[in-house]
Amino acid sequence: MIGIDVGGANLKVVTGEGTNVHYCPLWEGNDLASVLRRFAGPGEEAAVVMSGELADCFTTRMEGIRFIVDAVREAFPGARFYGTDARFHDHAVPELASANWLASADFLMDLYPGALLVDFGSTTTDIIPLCGVPPLEGMTDLSRLQQGYLVYTGLLRTTVPALIRSVPLCGIPTPVCPEYFACSGDAHLVLGHIGEEEFTTESPDRKGKDRTSCLRRLSRAVCADLEEIGEEGALAVAEEFWQAQRSLICRTVQRVKDRAGASQILCAGTGGPLLSPILGGDDLRKSLGPAADALPASAVREVGLRDPGSWL
Questions:
Q1: Which residues 6+ apart lie within 8 Å of 304 measured at CB?
Q2: Computed over its alpha carbons, how large is the radius of gyration of the chain?
Q3: Are the beta carbons of 32 and 6 closer than 8 angstroms?
Q4: 151 pLDDT tier (thresholds 50, 70, 90)
Q5: Is 227 helix (H, G, I), strand (E, B) or coil?
Q6: In sequence order, what are the residues at sequence separation of 6 or more whose Cβ sits closer than 8 angstroms to the Cβ of residue 302?
Q7: What predicted TM-score, i.e. pTM, was given to this entire model?
Q8: Spatial contact of 284 and 272, defined as CB atoms under 8 Å apart
Q9: Residue 166: is its pLDDT beyond 60?
Q10: Is the predicted pLDDT of residue 312 greater than 80, yes or no?
Q11: What's the rounded Cα separation, in Å, for the pair 184 and 214?
């Protein structure tokens, strides 16, 4: 059995041999089925979660669910899809919308009862109290946003003006331009949090992901060229962004942790190693290896293997 997590930007596949992450933006019309066929062997079963139905190429989330189910079943006719009812389904139903976080909780619940999972991915941060599956069943992205279980900021794809409105340059408060000139990946690369090989999504200008290219995009966030504000000015933009992002995540984690009475924090996702020392959490890479970077795909595979009787 393989585990598949179909996001709007990234496709993650976990097999018995390893973890595979592909930048596969659905809004660009990528052939999802063709990518998945690379992993399809004779009689191979697939357990699937998704969040890509929220991509704006779909008029409704149900349209996105149907598209993803159809594409996956082209490659894996017997695929089963995990829903927010904590059950597997063989056809498109509303419960499949953004159930990937619940699969992670379902898998970790018995291993770390009462802990708080913080999954800092490329696009979003899931904050999930491992308090039992029933209290979490049926939650939508909307309800998770309202309760602090979903923070829409990530390691790579968040726009800089989503979190900061101004930055001090040479002591002068300078407004940030509300355009998609720079992203969180640019900030984290120039701050040394990630390398080029970890900047796996498309850059805002679809150009380089080297340090100089990232500094140039960060400079553009204040309507300047790199030569105009220098590396120091571009780094100031990155540092202001990271301070705001870190503060937002830490505040929300603390609020959910206090409410849930959690005594332990688990960190996963591509940004897990960055967050774990800040939050005083345990980096799941140490116990799960690379699968921690694609936790929902790994988790849905484990849940499917553990409980085949839940497949409807």
A1: 1, 3, 45, 47, 80, 82, 88, 311
A2: 20
A3: yes
A4: very high
A5: helix
A6: 3, 107
A7: 0.94
A8: yes
A9: yes
A10: no
A11: 10
CB 210 within 8 A of CB 190: no
- Which residue matches tokens 């996001």? 7
**Can you tell me the distance from the alpha carbon of 144 to that of 163, in angstroms, rounded to the nearest whole number?**
19
Task: Residue 242: name the closest of 284, 274, 200 by CA.
Answer: 274
256: closest CA among 135, 156, 155?
Answer: 135
For the segment 206-232, the average pLDDT, to the nearest whole number, is 98
Q: Are strands 282-283 and 265-268 parallel, antiparallel or unpaired?
A: parallel
Burial (0-12, 13-18, 19+ Cβ within 10 Å), 16: exposed
- Confidence grade of residue 29 (pLDDT, cut at 50, 70, 90): confident
Q: What angle do CA 48, 52, 58 make, to 5 degrees?
A: 130
- Mean pLDDT confidence for 154-180: 97
What does residue 282 show for φ and ψ, rounded to 5 degrees?
-95, 125
Estimate the crossing angle of helix 295-306 against helix 100-108, to 10 degrees.
Answer: 60
The per-residue pLDDT for 311 is 57
Strands 125-129 and 116-120 come out as antiparallel
What residue ranges define each of the domains in the chain, with the CATH number in brackets? 2-102+290-310 (3.30.420.40)
292 in Cβ contact with 275 (< 8 Å) = no
Evaluate if residue 117 carries a pLDDT over 90: yes
Phi first, then psi: give them for residue 56, nearest 5 degrees: -75, 5
| Residue 260 near residue 129 (C-beta atoms within 8 A) | yes
| pLDDT computed for residue 42 by the predictor | 83
Distance of alpha carbon 271 from the chain centroid:
9
- DSSP, res 259: H
Query: Identity (one letter) of the amino acid at 127?
Result: I
| pLDDT, average across residues 270-280 | 97
Dig out the tokens for 60 from the structure. 């409704």
CB 189 within 8 A of CB 214: yes
